[in-house]
Design a protein that fits this description.
Helices cover 58% and strands 12% of the residues. The chain is α/β, with parallel strands linked by helices.
């Protein structure tokens, strides 16, 4: 995800020399430096020295140790801190970094890798209007940005858009498998499933009508689409999707307790 953000920022006109990246994996740093003319280091404190914005693109499991190690620098410099770690509340980040740290929690999704992401963002009260604008410009470089006022809704954002691409991939997978069962080759079934998914999403993006009305318009009474839709609904399709999202949101809340607890 960090690589996607770097690529998006540079494509959006940011000066590469203003971007510093730290990682414990030297091979990852080498790959990034080969792709982008940026400064890389394996020293987190060197990376954040003098920075106006610090992006914490680390796994929830290591966020506490990373944040605590940076507490001195952050408390002294008072930069904007943007976290993309699932389940880590801003209160935990402030506990580790300093109680008055300006924190923006964000939940981008993997289509950010192709500048088509969807990111939910929450700013704590210490974030200024200028910092809010900077945070938005950073994440907007890889897709759309939605601000939420209630931090608890970050769990719902994680379930819907954060994990959402995997649901779409699973549906494409299922279409491909069913296409093979109907007699198509694997390649043909995949291409038809992929282009159908792309076309449907493109239609929805370019339409002023909601998905329900778009679906109804392509579902002729007594036709093939109606029979397929009826079969999905009789199998509890909508209920299963709802159950899946609730499960993902619950897991996000569990991550908060596991890795975001300040004890």
């Amino acid at each position: 995800m960090a690589g996607s953000l770097i690529g998006g920022l540079i494509a959006d006109g940011w000066n590469p020399s203003s971007i510093r990246v730290s990682d414990t994996d030297s091979r990852q740093l080498e790959r990034l430096s080969q792709r982008f003319p940026i400064m890389t280091t394996n020293d987190n404190e060197a990376a954040v020295a003098g920075a106006d914005v610090v992006v914490l693109a680390v796994k929830p499991q290591v966020m506490e140790s990373v944040a605590q190690a940076l507490a001195g620098s952050v408390s002294k410099q008072q930069p904007l801190v943007i976290s993309i770690a699932a389940g880590i509340p801003e209160s935990a980040l402030r506990h580790w970094l300093g109680e008055k740290t300006a924190v923006v929690r964000s939940m981008p999704n993997t289509p950010a890798m192709v500048q088509s992401g969807a990111t939910a963002m929450y700013a704590n009260p210490y974030v200024s209007d200028e910092q809010r604008s900077v945070a938005e410009s950073i994440l907007r470089a890889v897709g759309i940005v939605i601000w939420i006022d209630d931090e608890s809704m970050m769990d719902a954002a994680t379930a819907l858009s954060g994990s959402g691409p995997a649901y779409m991939f699973l549906f494409i997978e299922a279409l491909q498998a069913a296409g093979r069962e109907l007699g198509f080759s694997e390649e043909t079934a995949y291409l038809l499933a992929l282009q159908t998914a792309f076309g449907a999403v493109k239609m929805a993006l370019e339409s002023t009508e909601d998905a329900k009305l778009l679906r109804q318009r392509v579902t002729s009474p007594g036709g093939t689409t109606e029979r397929a839709i009826n079969t999905l609904q009789e199998g509890g399709f909508e209920e299963l999707v709802s159950k899946a999202l609730h499960a993902a949101a619950e897991r996000s809340r569990e991550l908060s307790k596991e890795y975001g607890s300040t004890r």
